[in-house]
Amino acid sequence: MAEGRTRAAWAEIDLDALAHNVAVLAHSAAPAALCAVVKADAYGHGAVQVARTALASGASGLAVAIADEGLELREHGIEAPVLVLSEVTPDAAEVLVRARLTATVATQRGMEALAAAARHVGTRARVHVKVDTGMHRLGVAPVEAPALVQAAAAEPALRVEAVWTHLAVADGTTADDQAFTALQLRRFDEVVAALAERPRLLHVANTAGAIAWPAARYDMVRCGIGMYGCAPAPGMPGDAAAVVASLRPVLSLKARVSAVRELDAGERPSYGRRRALPERGVVATVPIGYADGVPRRLFDTGSPVLVGGRRRPLAGTVTMDQLMVDCGPGATVGPGDEVVLIGRQGEEEIGAGDWARLLGTISYEVLCGIGPRLPRVYRSAGDR
Ligand SMILES: *Cc1c(COP(=O)(O)O)cnc(C)c1O
Q1: Is the CB of residue 223 below 6 angstroms from any atom belonging to ligand 1?
Q2: Distances (CA, A) of 219 to 17, 20, 55, 114, 207
């Protein structure tokens, strides 16, 4: 069974689409380099496979949120630069150094712990100093940044490769958002101007910054969501919209019908008996549920799924492991038929962004929510 060991539900990852998106983003950001952000298991797509494909398609390095994610890449033989986007706790510094991960440093204490770990291991640790220009999540304050960079540069056990920051509203379209991004860039430039020496790399932009803010590209951009074929937000401005339009969705969410039954009008499938069948018809059971990342609330949003190339409504509340679909009167659907929850079937397509809009969230959360219980099935032209 191609879909996994025994499971008739899976996430399909189109590695050709991923390679295409990496090439599009790399091209649009050039001459800046592209760092492929593969945190959170590559937004649910599978970090190791995504990392390999991204590196083969134009990415110069990788970024993860936490050191454990970097260790996973190293354990799978990936030797490219891996930037950990948060400062590790002092007790984790040695693990990071031994795995040759690139550290983010945002505090004097973190810098000293890293230097001590590097001395202990007998190596030089690579450092990217993070500046807080307005996101207020992580980073050294701009006024303290030059001194921290200087102190790190003076440590023989450290090699300061980069200074970086992160944008809070690069995907925003209001005048306020635009002004705030411009302010963050100005603060960053002021920090850089105050450094005794310009580091090899300056990097600022996420996907939205990379495609909507040419001035934010510097030497490297850090792209996540665009690689996965989703817009950072609906309604990106100008040139950014053209880039977004050329991206291809990478992940599809699919399952095979496990059971069908014909029910009378008025029957109310699933927990809570929330919806009455409008007419006598076929209801299909599909073995995927909220434990796999299909939000229970999807039923309330009225979001359809694709069966037999048509959009069909859920017949009731999503359960933990299964959901039911109202396939309508006389539907010829049977066990084993493919159901597409996210992706394309025939002429119809449902995107992670469509779920996000209906659920009042962002595509990032939809993708990251696709659970580890679902097998990932990787496809590329070579195996078609
Ligand atoms: C997640 C993340 C990114 C990638 O953001 P996208 O919007 O997915 O491109 C870049 N930089 C940092 C610091 C991040 O945390």
Answers
A1: yes
A2: 25, 22, 17, 25, 14
